Amino acid sequence: MFSHLIDRLRGRYARLDEQDIERAIDIVVEQTDPRLRFVRGFRRKLRKPVVRSLAYVDDLVTRIPGPFEISRKAYGRDPQVNALFGSPDDVETLFARSKMLQDFFRDNPGCDRVCVPFAMHRQEKRILAMALSGDIVRRDVARTAVNFSGHRLGIVCAESEAELRSKLRWRGIQTLAVTALENITRLKTRTAELEEQRALLKMKLGDVQAQHSGLEAIAGVPSEDSQEEQVLEQRLKDTGEKLKEARTGVATLVDYLDQVCQVLNHPSRYLRVRRNSVTVDRMGIKLDGMSQGKGGEVFSATLTIGTHPDFELILAAFQRSGMAATP
Fold it and tell me: What are the angstrom distances between the C-alpha of 226 and each of 32, 84, 149, 240?
């Protein structure tokens, strides 16, 4: 099994184009800090991490299901579309009146179909509903309702599925680069906070030491001030150690580059896609042992980006003929 995984990874790496690798390196540098170009050998240092991330993102993008044909008619006959929207009017609002799609068709007069990422939130909750048990209708039966909300179209679209997945590939590389920048910014912010904290502790310790000059000190009798002084000295020491560690991560451009490589070497820590499917009836109720009717399987993929909230994603296709007339 392990050897099979190695062969699979090698196969993905072998399919990477040299121009794509160079393009990815340029994207990473521009999205993080263009000054990284001044680091000697920055391309050589970024090459392996970038190759690893490219292969990972290539595989990740293939896990997004679709494209599914979206239309008012599809709402009535396709369980996938029926489950994602509350009504045919929702299809009209999101797709048919989308300015982005209108602009796309305007700029591509020979294209009759557009592919676009379609994101939403998925929620499952327990509800009380009716269910059939043989020939008996039971009321107030606990069932699971699946609901999709917060619908939004992605900011990229394309004529074909292949072109759209290619665009999403580069969006994935940009996402990893932005994640690296967020990590660097977080470390810099942490450094600034620790520096301020250390300065305040030094001032407070100085005040305590200045006040600690009474007869208690001559007699060697412990006082509240001396105990506070010990606490402050320990806190100052701990803060100094934390500050030293934080500074080490972002002290130079070489440190910046190391932070970027760390993200690109471990892309699965920051960007993940998990395919999902659920079978529901026309009312959005998950089919279980209490279900008598037929249901339809609904596909989506859960996309996780760093610490941001997860969301569901599919690829959608929409016909020019379904677009609403522009005023």
Answer: 48, 67, 60, 21
